Amino acid sequence: QVQLVESGGGLVSPGGSLRLSCAVSARTFTTYTLGWFRQAPGKEREFVAAVTWNGGRLYYADSVKGRFTISRDNAKNMVYLQMNSLKPEDTAVYYCAADRIGLATTSGTEYDYWGQGTQVTVSS
Description:
Blueprint: E1 3-7, E2 10-12, E3 18-25, E4 33-39, E5 46-51, E6 58-60, E7 68-73, E8 78-83, E9 92-99, E10 113-114, E11 118-122
Parallel strand pairs: 2-11
Antiparallel strand pairs: 1-3, 3-8, 4-5, 4-9, 5-6, 7-8, 9-10, 9-11
């Protein structure tokens, strides 16, 4: 059974940084595409970033390009989201997701497994 556990969320001031982590328990982790999504109150879930199995392809939402960086460590079964220059509109619950086939990109329907989420609040 595949489990994803996010950590690293919290309260940060505008302009600040946070690093989210996601631990993935899966025997074939190295073949998975991994992504981050977020959902703000009253809004639909939206794509944030994704990385293919070897880090060869990276995908970002336009709203986070240049501010967020996704990375993965296959030796540790971890995926990260470094978030810099945070804005109040980045406030949301952030979810880690995994696609076991390795073909997913930006659509949530392409992902098979999801974590429980971690809250990120950007406020002064």
